[in-house]
Every structure is written in C-alpha cells, then in structure tokens.
Amino acid sequence: METPGSQSSLHRANLERVVRAVRLAGSMTQAEIARATGLSAATVSNIVRELREGGTVEVTDTSAGGRRARSVSLSGDAGIVIGVDFGHEHLRVAVGNLAHRVLAEEAEPLDVDASWTEGFDRAEKLVGQLIDTVGVGRDKVIGVGLGVPGPIDVESGTLGSTAILPGWAGINPREELSRRLGVPVYVDNDANLGALGELVWGSGRGVKDLAYIKVASGVGAGLVINGQIYRGPGGTAGEIGHITLDESGPVCRCGNRGCLETFAAARYVLPLLQGTHGPDLTMERVVRLARDGDPGCRRVVADVGRHIGSGVANLCNLLNPSRVVLGGSLAEAGELVTAPIRDSVSRYAIPSAARQLTVTSGALGGRAEVLGALALVLSEMGDSTVLGGLIGAPALSSAR
To answer: Whole-prediction pTM value?
Structure first.
C-alpha cells in the first residue's frame, strides 16, 4: 500500500509526470522532458527505459540542435482516441493515437439542426466504420472528444443556447454519445476545439496565448490563456460574435441589436450579394470569387474583416493575446480578410497590444475542430489511463 511521500508514491508521481509531458506534446526528446518536468536527466532516462520496457512509450533516434537525440512518444499500441465534430452542415470524425498521429478521418454532409437523433445515429455509424478501417479493437478506445456548434452549459452539460440548435434543446450531448459508444466523452464548443486544434497541430503551435476566431453561420472565439482553453465559470467565454458594434443595427438571434455576428456571419453577409450573384451563393464561393478578383465579393470580405477587427481589438485590450488565428471558410480569403482585421486592430486597440499581435489564417481549414476534439481527449484523459497496466491503475478515467 502506497503512503504519501513513500518511494513508491514518488516513483508513480514521476512516471505520471513524464507521461503527461509526452502526452500533451506528442513527442519530446529526453532533454525536453527533463526541462518540462524538472526531473534530472538520469531520472528521465531511467523512467523512459521503464516505460519503454512496459510498452507505454516508443523511442526513436532523432536530432536536436545538430546533436543526436532520442525522441519519446506514447506507444501506438497504448490506445486510440476519437474526435467527432458536428457542424451545422457537416459531420466529421477522426481517429488518432496517443502519439498525436491521425490514423483515419472522414466527413459527410449533415443537417445537424434537423434532428439530433439522426446526427448521433450517423456519428455512431461513422465512428464504427473508422475504427474498423484502422483495424484496432474497440477495447483500445480511451475516449471521444465531441464538438458542437454552440456554448455548453457547465452545470447541466446541455447546449447553453436553444436559439443556436433548437432541435437539441434539453439534450446532453456528452451523455448521449457516451451511452452509445460505452467510453468517456469530453465535449466542448466548436470554437474552443478549433483553438485546440490550431494550438497542437496548426498556426498556434508554440504560442501560449491566442484567440481562434471562427466565422461561419455564427461568430465565436476559442480563447487560450497560458496554454489552456479558458471557458469561464458558465462555459460561455469567447462569445465574441455578440460584442455590440451598433446599438441601432440589425436584430441578432440573441435578441440584441448590432452584434458583430450581424455584420460578419454568413447568414447576414450572403444576402448582400445574392441579388447580383444568385440565391444559391455560399460563403465558400464568395471567398473564391474574391480571390479571383470579383469587386463586390472583395468589398464584402474586406468589410467583414474590418468588423471582425473591431472585435479583435476589444480582445487585445482585455486579454492581450500574442496571436489571433482566423478559422472557418472565411479564412481561405487570406490577406483579403486578415489585412483589414489588422487595420481595425491598429486603429482601435491599445498600441502596445496591437504591436505584439500576429493575425493569421488557420493552417487546418475545416479539420481544425475535429483535430481539436482529438486534442481535447489527449489533454483531459488521466495519465493512469496510459499507465494502467504498468502501475495497476484503472483502465478508464471518468468523463468530463
């Protein structure tokens, strides 16, 4: 029996510390592990050898700073994680391992607003198909990350706004998917997951303070502060789309007037161009036309960028992030939209905050949220999950 401060208790703590560092990073050299954990190089070397012999980690030769080094990652056999992303018009599922490698991924069109039961039926089926494609047993699934297009109420676990997905009112997405798949499910809104995806795999790598702005049918932000997603006590942090730009502006779905969303979201922007470009116009096509030189589309994209920049300026003044990553279909416009964002930030933000800010398009495109769902599991799962066989810990951690 372990007692606090005993040698066995300290050893277990050091094992978990090393596994946690590798789990969050994907792969690290032994020197990087020592710096991240504060353990000595000799202790790290002994722990890595023990973990390797137990099948928990894999060690490969690499180089760092021109010198030979050993890269440590969690074993591909240690388990798999699954990401599920519900968008308003799509379902995307990905399977990855604990070494941050994506093993399979698939997307299909889906009207999520129409029926929550159909959405979960399709998700359950697609998860099963991808697990079979990867060729692993279902007992290897450690957890599932689930993204939904709206804020999650922290206390109830349900969507915090019935105006966003009215057909999902009263549904607890985490409990529903966990019941169907029989594993822990970790749930968050799509903007937070987009931020996690870009932080781990995309334009946010190496940054500890950033905001991921997703512009689609709505406008939301995922906020990363000191390397962690900030959700707020009620889970609604990052609702940048409901910053008021004009008190006399259009009525927003939240009930207020002149929210940023009413000047930037697709449902409000597309009608400005449908009279000249046809009723079937999509935001993706607007971006393509703008990049091809269409003057009307270029003007609308620039205007949207300036409005988003006003909201970003408020974020700069409050939180002083070092990077803003633009996601959603609008991000494909590149400098046509990011340059106007920077112009507004320069005009409205405190000069010192504006100078420190980098504004860039996301590197992951439409994959950001589903990869963020994988990252959510990797960040939330307990280290004892990975070490279960090595130190006699339980096989699964509790769901968030």
So the answer is: 0.85
